[in-house]
Amino acid sequence: MQIRDATFLMSNSRVELCPPPTLPEYAFIGRSNVGKSSLINMLTERRGLAKTSSLPGKTQLINHFIINKEWYLVDLPGYGYAKVSKENRVKWARMINFYLRQRENLACVFVLIDSRHSAQAVDLEFMEMLGSEGIPFVMVFTKADKQSGSRTHQNVVEYMQKMSESWDEVPRHFITSAEEKTGREEVLGFITDINQQ
Ligand code: GTP
Ligand code: MG
User: Fold this and answer.
1) Would you say residue 1 lies in a domain?
2) pTM attached to this predicted model
3) 100: domain range?
4) Which residue is closest in CA terms to ligand 1's atom 28?
5) Which of 52, 94, 164, 192 has its CA 20 to 30 A from that of 11?
6) Residue 174, beta-bridge partner list
7) Strand order across the beta sheet in which 6-12 lies
């Protein structure tokens, strides 16, 4: 897919205020600092489109972008960041859960997972929730440039094994590096396929 146009539309905390649900929507979620905003910039080839930071907790609202005037891309705040106050964490969880359950044009959620780590309970629980709610999702293993391919593969296999304990069918997965721009064609090709269905 060629990205001819990528435009920031709005940030807000309420699903009712999101853009009209008339186009297919793809949301990017995962733990704080996993690389959601960086992946969005890599996919769209727009360096500063989504705001990134080396400090976790940068993205705090539901951010809508419109791509090629054909589909929405959404940058969400991360989950599982310990340094945020309990009150804020509860507020974010409520906002994200409400968005995921209510957004009727949500075509697929991309759950980002840091490819450096072995399977984490917080990620497995989040995907368990998506699966039980019937929310379509795929997995994206980020920051693959940070270690060897075999180490990444080992962590991916571990996730797939854990997922297959709960589900008959394991979700599709992608391996990406925003640094080395790998996985871009695969992710965009997947979105193209869904948009054409
Ligand atoms: P929050 O909005 O805080 O939840 O974080 P985020 O998931 O949007 O992460 P963000 O894209 O802001 O990236 C966090 C840090 O990881 C930044 O310092 C990025 O430069 C770095 N980073 C993101 N993706 C990659 C990658 O593929 N490779 C490497 N080496 N670093 C990355
Ligand atoms: Mg972010």
Assistant:
1) no
2) 0.95
3) 6-196
4) 143
5) 192
6) 140
7) 6-12, 62-67, 71-75, 25-30, 106-114, 137-142, 173-175
- 144 found inside a domain: yes
Is residue 179 one of the residues assigned to a domain?
A: yes
Res. 82: pLDDT tops 70: no
Angle (CA) 183-187-106 rounded to 5° is 150
Q: How deeply is 89 buried, as exposed, middle or buried, from its count of CB atoms within 10 A (0-12, 13-18, 19+)?
A: middle
> Which atom, in ligand 1's list, is nearest to the CA of 59?
2
Across all residues in the chain, what is the average pLDDT? 93
Looking up residue 157, the CATH number of its domain turns out to be 3.40.50.300
Ligand 1 touching residue 155 (CB < 6 A): no
Amino acid at 54: S
Tell me whether residue 189 is exposed, middle or buried, using C-beta atoms within 10 angstroms of its C-beta: 0 to 12, 13 to 18, 19 or more. exposed
Q: Would residue 35 count as lying in a domain?
A: yes
Contact between residue 112 and residue 178 where contact means Cβ atoms under 8 Å apart: no
Distances (CA, A) of 1 to 45, 98, 191, 193: 12, 31, 9, 10
| Nearest by Cα to 27 from 101, 122, 129 | 101
Number of domains in the chain: 1
Ligand 2 centroid from CA 8, angstroms: 14
Q: Is 66 helix (H, G, I), strand (E, B) or coil?
A: strand
pLDDT tens, residue by residue, 132-191: 999 999 999 999 999 999 999 999 999 999 999 988 999 999 999 999 999 999 999 999
